[in-house]
Amino acid sequence: MAKIRWPLVVRRTHKWLALLVGLQVVLWTLTGFYMVVIHIDTIHGDHLVRAPVVQPYDLAALTPPSRIVAAEPGTSEVRLQRRLDRPVWRAETPAGPVLYDAASGTRLAPPTEQEIRALARRIYTGDGAIVAVRLLTTAPQEMQARKPPYWQVEFAGWNRPTLYLSPQTGELLSRRHALWRGFDFAWMLHIMDYDERSDVNNPLLRVATWSTFAMAISGAWLLIWSFPRRKKKKKTAA
Predict the structure, then answer these.
(1) What residue intervals traverse the membrane (predicted)?
(2) pLDDT tens digits for range 7-23
């Protein structure tokens, strides 16, 4: 029976592991660098939207929220807010959010495309024109975490700034732009979740992590094994 040459076995194992995980290690480094260099507030798109303007309300002139609750059985929350400078009551009902005119108590219809354009234009901080407005019923890749429908409003610009608004209330749901999309792609490569881009404990990542660990252990073993071999060679030469 042939004797197993462990140094050769370990060296070949180390070499093949290095070839298999080397590319992923490079991707981990590059994607990690991108995610560290770009500030997280920039990724979130905080610079794309204006901070809401706080304005006082004349509560005495508004419909009491009890009327809204009575009109919408099962309402869990009623909140006072504004829609295009108009005070409205936002009722969270079992069927979804509903808006009521806070002055008259009249239920408001969902915003039209023209109102969505006006709302998006008011929220957006840039000067680019609106190039597309779509009511989506299927979630794009960049909005997989949110269930449609929602309005997608895209503005002109190198970074393709895009706002997503609620079809029931016109509220801002999310914002996306080129740097966010780059971050999302880098995150996908970093965690090796090529489907949902959210599972940080997926099988591919676990295999790559343990393979990298095995490569490091085998490399350390080869390093330690090389020292006595060198000493033996020097002794023989003497």
Answers:
(1) 16-37, 207-227
(2) 777 777 777 888 778 88
